[in-house]
Amino acid sequence: MSRARTARRIAAGAAYGGGGLGLVGVAAVGLVLAEVQFAKRTVGTGLGDPPRADGLYGSEFGGMDPDPGPLRLGMMGDSTAAGLGVRRARQTPAALMASGLAAVAERPVELRNVAASGAMSDDLDRQAGLLLDGDLPPPDVCVIMIGANDVTRRMPPTQSVRHLTSAVRRLRLAGSEVVVGTCPDLGTIEPVYQPLRWLARRVSRQLAAAQTIGVVALGARTVSMGDLLGPEFAANPREMFGPDSYHPSAEGYATAAMAVLPTLCAALALWPESDRLEVARNEDMLPVAKAASAAAGQAGTEVTPARGPWALLKYRRRRRVPGEDLAATTPPDPAESVPGTQVAGT
Hints:
By secondary structure, the protein is an alpha/beta fold. The chain has helices spanning about 5-15, 25-45, 80, 95-105, 125-130, 150, 155-175, 195-215, 225-235, 235-240, 250-265, 290-295; strands at about 55, 70-75, 110-115, 140-145, 175-180, 220-225, 285, 300-305, 310-315, 340-345.
């Protein structure tokens, strides 16, 4: 069965209350997950809690006029969204995105990160409540990074997508733009060997494509984390993975943050790129499921809705944004975006 067809089945099952659908053969999935869990036990974590990065970024853009005030950025998800594995708050992906957004918007950004290490998609409703319930206004835009724990802990993919879309719907109804970093490529985990590496990649990409289909229908956007980062992580595991060989290093988080930044800016109409197709760059218009499948399997692709069931498949150019060069050892002001895979909703 093709990835697009599988993703459609998972998304449909999530929408209409279907049960768990197998991504690959049951025995193969069990073997993959056992190997991933063994890899996690082998490398161990011992990383402690991620640093807290909440606060105001880009205060130099405040000026004398308090209006319109800072942009509000929310961060939700698992340990990757929380920044587990780095020592400094400024090295977390949320802090990097907040600084990048402030530099592009030339406006301060107030960051609230409610992501939790070990979280699965069924924790997203609680996290959304932390951002939405209370006296504070809802985020202008929220980034969600989720999926890896759903796979390794065997949450049925339809259930995983259902929890994600429920949280996204809640945020959208509150007036927030939403960007989802879909399930990362578990085939890049260094202690997982072939042929299980290939199977882990397949499971991850199928869930990522299904997440995309569900999220786009609600007017949110997705960034394909797996295939975008996979080649770089696979080619430079010592550099891109942290000390536990499972979570990203500061350099890995910087790569992930710069993949999401263009979509984050586009969600707030701050990114100046056109939605016109450029045939010379092999851009195309495809059914949403096929576009989602392509985004899960090809680095540097963006998908944005066109009309009806069709979507645009685009390749984002590398673009300079205001600020200093981004490096894990410097304040997190971005300079150059990494091509991101985006799926944008209407």
